[in-house]
Design goal:
The protein is built from 14 helices and two strands; from the N terminus they run E-E-H-H-H-H-H-H-H-H-H-H-H-H-H-H. By secondary structure, it is mainly alpha-helical. It comes from Pneumocystis wakefieldiae.
C-alpha cells in the first residue's frame, strides 16, 4: 500500500481548507510560524465577528424587559394626564380671555378681590389714551347734516356714547381712593374726565340728558371727596393754586354744575381763592353746558 504523506490543514479567511503535504510545505518553504500567524489571524477575525453579533443582540432590549422597567430615566406617560390650562389659554385672544374672566367673576363674586390682587392697575396715560379714542368714536358717529341735537342723531350716537360714559364712570373708581393713593394722580384724572364731560353732547329732548347729569353728579362727588381729604392731610407737593384755578374754569364751562365743588373748595381752601372769585356765584339751574354741537362743527 502506498504510504501517504502527512498533510497540514490551514483555515483561510473564508473558512475554506487548504491542505499542504509535508513535502510540499518543505518545497514551498512554508514554515510553522507562518501557518500559525494565518491561523491566529483567522481566529481573531472570527472573534471580532462574534463580538459584533453579540453587541447587536444586546442593543435591542424589549420595552417589557426588567432592565427598562427598572430604569431611572423618566417615562413619557400620557394616560390619565389632564390638559394643562396654560395650553388652553395660549390659544385665546384678548377679547375671549377677558370675557372668560368677567364671566367667572360674575358667577363667583368672591374672585373679584383675587383678580384685583393679581392684576396691575392701569396707568393714567394708557387710560387717557383709551378714553380719547372712545371720544373720537363718539364724534365720528354723528351723521352729516340734519339736526345735530335731534332724535336721529341721538339714536345714531347713543350706543357709543353710552359706552364712553360708562368708561368715564368706571375708570373714575380706579383712580380714586382706596385704589389710588396719589392725590396728584387722582386730581389729574378728574381734570381730564371733567373736560371730556363738558364736551359731551346735549340733546333737544331733556330725557336724553339725564345720564349726563348723573355723570356730572358722580364727578362732582369725587372732586368733593378729594378736596375734603386734602384739607385734612398734608398737601404733599400739590399746587393748590393751580387746581383752584382749574376748578373755577370747570365751573364756568359747565354752566355752574360744579357749584357744589366750588362751595367745598371755598370752605376748605379759602386762602387759595383769588379775591375776585370769592363773591362769584353760579346758578345751579343753568343747563346750557358746553355746546358740543358747535364744538363738533368747528372741530370737524
Amino acid at each position: 500500500m502506498e504510504e501517504r504523506s502527512p498533510v497540514t490543514l490551514v483555515l483561510t479567511c473564508n473558512n475554506s481548507d487548504i491542505r499542504f503535504s509535508k513535502g510540499s510545505c518543505n518545497s514551498l518553504k512554508v514554515e510553522n510560524n507562518i501557518i500559525n500567524r494565518v491561523y491566529n489571524g483567522n481566529l481573531f477575525r472570527r472573534n471580532l465577528k462574534r463580538k459584533a453579533v453579540e453587541d447587536e443582540e444586546m442593543s435591542y432590549v424589549p420595552l417589557s424587559s426588567p432592565a427598562v422597567l427598572n430604569s431611572k430615566r423618566p417615562r413619557m406617560i400620557y394616560h390619565g394626564r389632564s390638559f394643562p390650562i396654560s395650553r388652553l389659554l395660549e390659544h385665546l385672544d384678548c377679547c375671549t380671555l377677558r370675557s372668560i374672566v368677567e364671566t367667572l367673576v360674575d358667577r363667583h363674586p368672591t374672585l373679584f378681590s383675587e383678580v384685583i390682587g393679581l392684576s396691575s392697575l392701569p396707568d393714567l396715560s394708557s387710560v387717557i389714551s383709551l378714553l380719547n379714542e372712545m371720544e373720537e368714536q363718539v364724534r365720528s358717529s354723528f351723521p352729516y347734516g340734519g339736526d345735530i341735537r335731534g332724535e336721529y342723531s341721538y339714536n345714531r350716537v347713543r350706543p357709543i356714547l353710552q359706552k364712553f360714559m360708562d368708561a368715564l364712570l368706571e375708570y373714575m373708581v380706579v383712580f380714586s381712593p382706596p385704589y389710588q393713593k396719589s392725590r396728584n394722580l387722582t386730581l389729574t384724572f378728574l381734570d381730564h374726565i371733567s373736560s371730556m364731560l363738558h364736551r359731551l353732547p346735549e340733546w333737544s329732548n331733556p330725557v336724553h340728558n339725564y345720564y349726563k347729569e348723573e355723570l356730572y353728579d358722580s364727578v362732582c362727588n369725587a372732586w368733593v371727596s378729594v378736596i375734603s381729604t386734602m384739607s385734612k392731610e398734608a398737601f404733599d407737593g400739590i399746587n393748590v393754586n393751580e387746581w383752584v384755578a382749574k376748578l373755577i374754569k370747570h365751573n364756568e364751562i359747565s354752566g355752574g354744575r360744579f357749584k357744589r365743588v366750588m362751595d367745598t373748595a371755598r370752605n376748605e381752601l379759602a386762602c387759595f381763592f383769588p379775591e375776585k372769585d370769592l363773591n362769584a356765584s353760579f346758578s345751579n339751574n343753568n343747563t346750557l353746558g358746553f355746546d358740543f354741537a358747535c364744538y363738533y362743527l368747528i372741530k370737524f
